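call fold(seq) -> C-alpha cells
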Amino acid sequence: MANIRGVAIITKRKNVEAKAAATKIAGMLGAKGVKAFAVSPLKIKGCDTLEPGKVKDSVDLVFAIGGDGTTLKAFRTIPGDLPLLSINVGGHRGILSEVYAENMESAIKGIIDGRGFYDSRIRIHAVAGRAAFPPALNEILLTRADLSRTPTISIKLMGDEIRHRMDGIVVSTPTGSTGHNLSLGGPVLHEGMSCLILTPIAPVNKMPQLVIPVEEIVVKSSHKSHLIIDGQESFVVEAGREVRISRHALGVKFLRLQKKGMRQLAKLGF
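ret:
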C-alpha cells in the first residue's frame, strides 16, 4: 500500500460506541502523522469535517465504523474507487467487516505500516425509464406494494422470459448472497465470483433460485411495487414499468489484512 495522506471516517448513526471508537481511531491516526476527517454529519473533536462529495479530494482510505449497514451506506456515500476498511463496532455479526473492537489498534498500526491488500467486489444498479437508482453492493429487491394482491412478475434474461405469480424477486451479487438471498433459502457464493443470483419470493408455482452470468435482467410487475436497494433505500415502481438491472460501472474495494477462503461462513456460525 502507498503512503496514506488522509482517512475519512463514517460511523453508525447515533451510536455512542461507534462514535467513541471513531474518536479513538482519529487520535491513533494523528499520532502516526495521518490526518483524520469526519464525514458529515459526523463530528469528531479535533477533526475537520468533509462533505461526502469532497471525500475523494482529501483522503486515500475510508473507515466505516458500525455494522454491515454502515458499510453498505458508506459505499453509496463515497466514490467507488476509494478503498474502505469495515470496522465492526456497535454492529451485529459484521459479515462484511475486517476489524473488530478487540483488534482495532493492531489493525490500524498494520495499515499505517503498509500491510493490507484490496478485495474488489461487483455492484449492480437498476434503471426504470429515466429514473436511475443508487448502486447496490448486496441486492436489489422488487416486491409487491399491495400485500393483498399477488402480482405476475416477468423476468427477461439471456434471451428468455420467465413469467410467474409471486410476491417479488431478489437480484443478489455474490457479496449479497448472505443477505435476503440466504434468508429465502438461496445459496452462499464465494464473494469473489462474477455472477448474480435470482431468488423468487413466495412463487405460486415452484421456481428455483438461479445463478446466472452478470448480464442485464429486465423485471416487470403487473402491480405497483417497491424497489429496495441493500435493504436501506426504497422507491416506488408503477405497474408495468420495466426495471433494468445490470452491473454498475464502478465496483468497490475493501481493504483487507488477512486472506481468507469462504470468509462469510465463520461469521454465519458454520
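The longest strand covers residues 6-11.
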